[in-house]
Amino acid sequence: MSELSSLFVKVKITKNQFENFLSSSPQKPELNxxxxxxxxxRNMYSKMDLTTEWLRxxxxxxxxxxxxxxxxxxxAFAFSDYDEASEEWRLGIIFFSENYLEMLPMFAFxxxxxxxxxxxxxxxxxxxxxxxxxxxxxAYINFEEGIASFNNKIQTTADVxxxxxxxxxxxxxxxxxxxxxxxxxx
Length: 186
Prior knowledge:
The chain is α+β, with helices and mostly antiparallel strands and about 190 residues long. The chain is built from five helices and six strands, in the order βαααββαβββα.
């Protein structure tokens, strides 16, 4: 049985551009070579072809509604931290998904950030089993020169720059502790 992987996104984005992104409608992804190569590079059970039917965006009115939906889903242990001083946004969903088809709308959401973010070598998105300690990486998205793209060479956590992985893991650990502290458990 698979366990839920975690999503972590960190991007440089001005406050104005962040607000523009949140007020924008979810962007329908374009089935292109990057999506297809990423899909083919993943190991999954009962793998089917990635088609425009499967590749979809969220149906919410705007990106803020998408974000709020995840933040309101207590069982997801999601967070959204925007730091005005550093102009950095960190988004995380500790219990995100184990199903690639379910992940697709979030990947479209993340990739659509490319139009709004500032150039930085720190911009990234990763889906990996932070909580469970497995090494499988479902997706790693780079943001370079205004383009977001899947990095298909990253298959396991061993393929991720150790400094980046340690930073991501430390931030998720900190947020996990904070979220647990503020959650009522029956």
